[in-house]
Structure formats: C-alpha cells, structure tokens
C-alpha cells in the first residue's frame, strides 16, 4: 500500500467517524425528545431544539469531507460507493434530527395542557424508531446488508402502530370535541415517529447498496425479500 492509498484510507476512516458522530447526536435527540414528551419536560424539549444546530453543523462537516475526498483523491469505484452512500445517509440523519426537534415543539405545547391519556403506544413507536436508527448505524459500521433488511421490515410495525394511534385519538375527538387540539398534536407526534422510521429505512437501503452494489429503494418488498437466506 503506497502513501496515497494510506492517506485515502485515513480520510475515509475520518469520514465514517464523522457520520457516526452525526448519527449518535440524532439518536440522542430522539431519545431526549421522547423523554421530554412523556415526562412533560419543557426545559429538556427546548434544549433538544437548541441542539439541532449542532446536528446541522455535523451534516455540513460530513458533506465537506466527502467533497474534499472526491476532489483530492479521485477514489476508485469501491471507495466512491462508500462516499456516495454517506452523502445519501447524512441528509436522512439530519432530517431525523429535525423531526426530533418537531416532537419537542409538540411536547412543549402539550405540557401546558391537561394530559389526554396515558402515553403507551407513542412511547412504543418511539422505542422502535430509536432501535431502527441505532440498528441502521450498527449495520453501516459492519456493512451488514442482512441486518439492514431486517430493520427495513420493522417499518411495517411502526406503520401499524401509527394507524392504531390515529384510530384511538379519532375516537377521543368524536366523543369530546374539547380533546381535538391535544389529540391532533399526539397524532402529529406519531406521524413524526413514523417518518423517523422511514428515514432509518432509507439509510438501510443505502447500506444494502454499500454492501452489495444494488439499489433496492424502488424495488419494494420483493427487493428486500431477495436478500433472505
């Protein structure tokens, strides 16, 4: 391995570490947003919102590293695929951070109102979404397409929970119009969590591309199922 290759390897390692810092920040933001919601902690919610700027800066750092590596090193096909994957994954993570901030905005609003009902299914959705994000980052580190496909399949579980939450909250609104504002805010939180799951799914689709060199994003479940065995 010559000096140029060693330099490129170090730069790619630095790039991966930057992406994982971004991912870790996003995962923590999701966890804190859920805690702020369930404990009605407006101060924590505001801290998460303020920290979104740090996540934005980390995404910009990842982007700049990618462009610098491409411009200065002219990476070959395998390394270029790694860089392209990161360029696709970083914005997905940043959007998840934005969604954590949006959950906190709803948490602040809900903290000033009487509790509509004990929160059970929304925290469950949040835990699944967090597990999907954490799992996608682990799969990225291992370049594990099998694990990525398993995470993609979990998105159906999130969708079912969201539909269940929407039905339950709709019944509250029908029975008592005074609950409409609170119920709508909880529905919005559920939708944000579902979108975090979608983001983790998109990350995992890019991990399959990284590991196997094949795009499954628009292939639907059949492309996911082909990875079994």
Brief synopsis:
The chain has 229 residues and is mostly helical. The chain has 7 helices and no strands.
Shape: elongated
CATH homolog superfamily? Phosphate transport system protein phou homolog 2, domain 2
CATH structural class: Mainly Alpha
Rounded average pLDDT: 93
Oligomeric status of the shown chains? single chain
Number of helices: 7
Computed CA radius of gyration, to the nearest angstrom:
20 Å
Number of strands: 0
Counted up, domains total: 1
Elements, N to C (H/E): HHHHHHH
Percent strand: under 5%
Q: Quote the distance from N terminus to C terminus.
A: 36 Å
* CATH fold group: Methane Monooxygenase Hydroxylase, Chain G, domain 1
Structural class: mainly alpha
Low-confidence stretches: none
Q: Which CATH architecture would you pick? A: Up-down Bundle
Strand count, sense and closure of the main sheet? none
- Helix percent band: over 70%
Annotate the secondary structure layout.
Elements: H1 3-39, H2 42-73, H3 77-111, H4 121-142, H5 145-175, H6 180-212, H7 220-225
Describe the structure in your own words:
The protein is mainly α and 229 residues long. The chain is built from 7 helices and no strands. It has one domain (3-225): Methane Monooxygenase Hydroxylase, Chain G, domain 1 (Up-down Bundle).
Main attributes?
229 residues, mainly alpha, 0% strand, Methane Monooxygenase Hydroxylase, Chain G, domain 1
